Amino acid sequence: MSATLKRCPFCNGEATILVSDDEGNDRNEEYESDPWSGLSFKIGHAHENNEGCPIAKYEEDGGMMGVYLYDSREEAIKAWNTRI
Ligand SMILES: [Zn+2]
């Protein structure tokens, strides 16, 4: 069973799960299978892909929603889906 992110309520754009390490540095999907520096997840929703969205962030800032790191995909998905 794989939970999915709801669309953004402001722009109807897609949000994505970003893989990162425990310090919040961006990592790719491959890192997830060998997380040698800890594993965390972030919610991504970038202006570049969601023009005009009032809550999207710029990719140069990481395109990341909020400041929270989540321990699992499920947790990140739940946080996004329930805050809106
Ligand atoms: Zn949006």
Structure report:
The protein is an alpha+beta fold. The protein has one domain. It has one helix and three strands. The protein has a three-stranded antiparallel sheet with strand order 2-1-3, covered by helices on one side. The structure holds zinc ion. Zinc ion (ZN) binds next to loops. The site of zinc ion has 9 residues, from loops.
- Main pleated-sheet profile: 3 strands, antiparallel
Determine the number of helices (DSSP H or I, runs of at least 4 residues): 1
Average pLDDT metric? 88
Structural shape: globular
Termini separation comes to 22 Å
Number of strands: 3
Query: What value does the Rg take, in angstroms?
Result: 12 Å
What is the spatial order of strands in the main beta sheet? 2-1-3
Determine the structural class based on helices, strands and strand pairing.
alpha+beta
Secondary-structure element string = EEEH
DSSP helix fraction? 10-25%
Low-confidence stretches: none
Bound ligands? zinc ion
Strand content: 5-15%
The number of distinct structural domains comes to 1
